[in-house]
Amino acid sequence: MTLAIPLSGLLWTFTAFAEVTTFSPATNVETTLVLDGSTLRVAVKSEAHSESRAIEFEALNELHVQIDDFNFDGMKDFAVWQIDDGMGIYHIHRVFVFQPQTGFFEELQPDCGDGFVNLRIEKNSKALISTYWTMNVAKQCVTRFPR
C-alpha cells in the first residue's frame, strides 16, 4: 500500500510504513521529515522558500528521528539516530540544524571524533556531549557553539 502527499509542490510516494514528522523550526517555517527505510526526505516550506532533499543513511538497524534545539539558538533542529550495527550498545546520531540564512538544515559535526556517539544534550552548559575513541580508549567530546 502506498500513500501520496503533496509537499512543497512535489508529489512524494512512500510506503504506508514510513514515519512522518512535521515541525516548525522557526516562525512561519514548516518542515516535514519522511523516514522510509534508510532514506530521509526533508521538505522545508516558508513564504519565501521551498526546498526538499533526500538524505541517505547507511544503517542496518532501525532509524529514529529526534526533534530538539541542538545548537541552542532557539530554533528546532533534528537528529536521526540508530543503535550501532555491531554489538548494539552505542547510539549513533547525525544532527541537522536549521539555518535561517539558507532556509534549510545543515549537518553538524562534533568537535572531536567521527560522529556523535551516545549523544547527550547539556542545555545548562549549551554543549553536546558525545563519545569518541583514541587508541581504543573512550573519551568525552564536548561540542560548543558561539553564543
Describe the structure.
Helices cover 0% and strands 60% of the residues. The chain has one domain (2-144): Lipocalin. It is mainly β and 147 residues long. The chain has strands at 2-7, 10-15, 19-23, 29-36, 39-46, 50-56, 64-68, 77-83, 91-99, 104-107, 116-122, 127-134, 137-144. Mean pLDDT is 88; it is low at 1-14.
Provide the descriptors you would attach to this structure in a database record.
147 residues; mainly beta; Lipocalin; seven-stranded antiparallel beta sheet; four-stranded antiparallel beta sheet
Strand and helix map with partners:
Elements: E1 2-7, E2 10-15, E3 19-23, E4 29-36, E5 39-46, E6 50-56, E7 64-68, E8 77-83, E9 91-99, E10 104-107, E11 116-122, E12 127-134, E13 137-144
Antiparallel strand pairs: 1-2, 3-4, 4-5, 5-6, 7-8, 8-9, 9-10, 9-11, 11-12, 12-13
| Main beta sheet strand tally, sense and closure | 7 strands, antiparallel
Strand content: over 45%
CATH class: Mainly Beta
Report the order of strands and helices: EEEEEEEEEEEEE
Structural class given helices, strands, pairing?
mainly beta
What is the helix fraction of residues, given as a range?
A: under 10%
**Total of domains:** 1
Q: Looking at CATH, which topology would you report?
A: Lipocalin
CATH architecture: Beta Barrel
Radius of gyration: 16 Å
Distance linking N and C termini = 48 Å
Number of strands: 13
Q: Overall 3D geometry?
A: globular
Nearest-integer average pLDDT: 88
User: What is the number of helices?
Assistant: 0
Low-confidence stretches: 1-14
